[in-house]
Specification:
Blueprint (H helix, E strand, L loop, with lengths): L9 H12 L9 E7 L7 H20 L6 E7 L15 H4 L21 H15 L5 E4 H7 L3 H9 L1 H8 L5 H4 L5 E3 L14 E3 L4 E5 L6 E5 L5 E3 L1 H12 L3 E5 L3 H13 L6 E5 L2 E2 L16 H7 L2 H9 L6 E2 L5 H14 L5 H6 L1 H5 L13 H11 L4 H11 L9 H18 L10 H15 L7 H14 L5 H13 L7 H8 L1 H12 L7
Parallel strand pairs: 1-2, 1-9, 2-3, 9-10, 11-12
Antiparallel strand pairs: 4-8, 5-6, 6-7
Length: 526
């Protein structure tokens, strides 16, 4: 029997925090895990990452409790938030200008889809992605929570504790903002805009606030319940935790101070702030924080065009407290890392299996996959052959791995599709072949001659040793220069595969032909 209590990987560490929250005694209700996002733009991978990581903690928690404690995973959309700016990556931007300040659930949908609002489109996109990964979750809309009365009791508590909440918030904001700040954002009864105005009067018994429209000078009374008001986001976070009984929620490192503030407000409202986990932010290729409104991060669809869902889950699992670039060039490594972990899993001890990322990615039941060729090798093969369809690649694969076909290895067939797509979009446009100088020309001719003297069935190590020998024989004191020359002349890239493995896979005769064509200047990217 494996002692899961001793596992030190981060999902189990987090799960133990939740267990301690209840003193080891099962509560009379399900344990609530929550993730939140604002549908102010197209959901990016960071949003997915929060759900994926929370799902891993939830599974670890179920294992620690022998699957005897029920739980729920809520994916909460703050779709009642006002539209503050027009995202850079949506169509019909000029048409959205008139809806600045409107609840996102009331902003018209700029996309060609059947959804009736901007928020509804983005919410549907998120659910579509989450469903692809078979997450067990419940989608919850802020607009429905406010308008249905789900939040009413805690909105009234917020009204009755108004001064105490203000004492928490006002010291954390600037002087100018203090003059207009209020925990409530009334929804304009005529325009429908979410107003950011000071509260002039409060009637706790009647459950309403009084405020003035700065544009017209007209005074209004707004109920704080039933959707008449929305809470400012920090009180809103606290109110949501209290109303939904949230026990666990992750948050980005940039929200550490906000979590502390919202936790204080949650206690004022009579709630118990959730256990939390601060993760580092994802960065774009320039090291900038990714943003839904900027559209500067990978979308989930973009990743899934070039790689498997499991490779994305692995990227989310690894080092969550370390800032990571989230760009296309990290995809191949993530794919091969996943395949390596999957291949190793059956051979390690049960204790080590609990430490394996694939155990957490697949909720304790990793699949058995036979992928005899790495993704990076497939990319190199596509690059060398400039292949444009799967049949060409499968011709090489069938010669390298006897009996392996698209029908017998559907996982590998999908990997072939990913490699072709990735090559077309990110490798082919940047290939730049150069001619060989005199020494390189002679060395490559020699390499082709020596290859023909070796059996076509020789091992990758034999081919690799031969490449080394030729480089040394032609005076390449630093063999890195020799390999770099091969990559630039044969592949049109400054880096490339382990050549022995490539020759074994691509074929001895095909490699010789590749050298001949390169030296005669007959290689190009059409």
């Amino acid at each position: 029997m494996v002692d899961v209590i001793k596992s030190r990987v981060w999902p189990f560490e987090e799960a133990r925090k939740i267990l301690s929250r209840f003193g080891g005694q099962a509560p009379s209700r399900p344990v609530i895990f929550e993730t939140g996002y604002g549908p102010s733009g197209i959901p990016h991978i960071g949003t997915f990452g929060e759900v994926a990581r929370t799902a891993m903690v939830r599974h670890a928690f179920h294992v620690l409790t022998n699957h005897e404690w029920p739980s729920r995973l809520i994916c909460f959309s703050d779709d009642m938030d006002g539209l503050r700016k027009i995202p850079d990556n949506v169509p019909n931007q000029s048409g959205l200008q008139a809806y600045l300040g409107y609840p996102l659930s009331k902003v018209p949908n700029p996309f060609l889809s059947d959804h009736d609002s901007f928020a509804a489109h983005n919410n549907a996109q998120l659910c579509h992605f989450l469903d692809k990964f078979d997450f067990d979750y419940e989608f919850v809309s802020a607009s429905k929570c406010y308008t249905s009365g789900c939040f009413d009791d805690f909105l009234l508590r917020l009204l009755s504790c108004y001064e105490e909440v203000m004492e928490v918030i006002l010291p954390t904001i600037g002087e100018e903002r203090r003059r207009t700040y209020a925990p409530f954002l009334p929804v304009h009864p005529e325009s429908g805009v979410v107003m950011q105005v000071p509260v002039e009067e409060r009637d706790v018994l009647a459950g309403l606030i009084v405020w003035t429209d700065p544009a017209t000078g007209k005074r209004y009374e707004s109920k704080v319940t039933g959707g008449g008001c929305k809470a400012q986001w920090k009180p809103d976070w606290a109110l949501r935790w209290a109303a939904l009984g949230v026990d666990y929620e992750m948050y980005g490192k940039d929200h550490i101070d906000n979590v502390k503030l919202s936790s204080r407000i949650c206690r004022i409202l009579g709630g118990h702030p959730p256990e939390g986990f601060s993760y580092e932010l994802f960065l774009d290729e320039d090291g900038q924080k990714i943003s839904k409104t900027k559209g500067n991060g990978l979308t989930i669809d973009e990743w899934l065009r070039y790689a498997s869902p499991e490779s994305l889950s692995l990227f989310m699992y690894q080092a969550p407290r370390r800032a990571k670039r989230l760009h296309f060039d990290i995809i191949p490594r993530s794919v091969d890392d996943y395949l390596s972990f999957l291949e190793l899993y059956p051979s390690v001890s049960p204790e080590a299996q609990l430490e394996s990322p694939v155990w957490h990615i697949h909720s304790g039941v990793p699949p058995v996959e036979d992928i005899p060729i790495s993704f990076s090798m497939l990319l190199n093969l596509v690059s060398a052959s400039n292949a444009e369809d799967k049949e060409i690649l499968w011709g090489f694969i069938g010669r390298y791995a006897e009996g392996v076909t698209a029908r017998t290895h559907p996982g590998l067939d999908k990997l072939v599709e990913y490699a072709l797509a990735y090559f077309q979009d990110f490798v082919r446009p940047f290939k730049c072949y150069r001619p060989a100088d005199e020494r390189e020309f002679s060395a490559l001719q020699d390499l082709a001659c020596r290859l023909r003297d070796v059996s076509s069935d020789a091992s990758a190590n034999v081919f690799q040793g031969l490449v080394y020998d030729v480089g040394k024989a032609h005076g390449f004191d630093h063999l890195r220069e020799w390999f770099k020359a091969i990559y630039e002349i044969l592949f049109g890239q400054s880096q490339g595969p382990r050549l022995g493995s490539f020759i074994r896979f691509y074929g001895r005769d095909q490699t010789c032909d590749l050298i001949t064509r390169a030296l005669s200047g007959h290689i190009s990217v059409s």
